[in-house]
Sequence to fold (150 residues):
Amino acid sequence: MSLRTAVAAPFQQRGQESMAESELVVALSLDRDWFSPDQAERLIDVATGQGLLELADGEVAVTFDPSEVEIPEEFVPDESILQEQSTFEKLLDKVVSAGTEKQTAVAEINELQSELGVTIEAAAVVYARRRGIDATEEAAEAREELKAEA
Fold:
């Protein structure tokens, strides 16, 4: 959630859905003083990798409506959002966002993994889908990871 919030804030403040990449770096680093310029660029890379941003010709565009994101007044993103999430972590975030306790989800996904004899990512995809959560993108990522390991 905090990655989405950090991405949405500058766009929401400006009332825009796209801006120059350099403008976003300035907004995240100098205007808000959340990150160094290098960290702001890293955030753009991570957010692009997660499908929150699209880059084209030096322009950065959000792939969601930033006005729908609630940004707490005292919000300051944690530097941990600069790390890319694994496929499992992305799925776990979706499951938790849908209302399942994190500890419960992890335990049940581990149990499902043992029952099915599959990777943790595959078990998380099945777990999410059984709860009506779209895991299409993560399923494709899990398949690609398996192909890369083979």
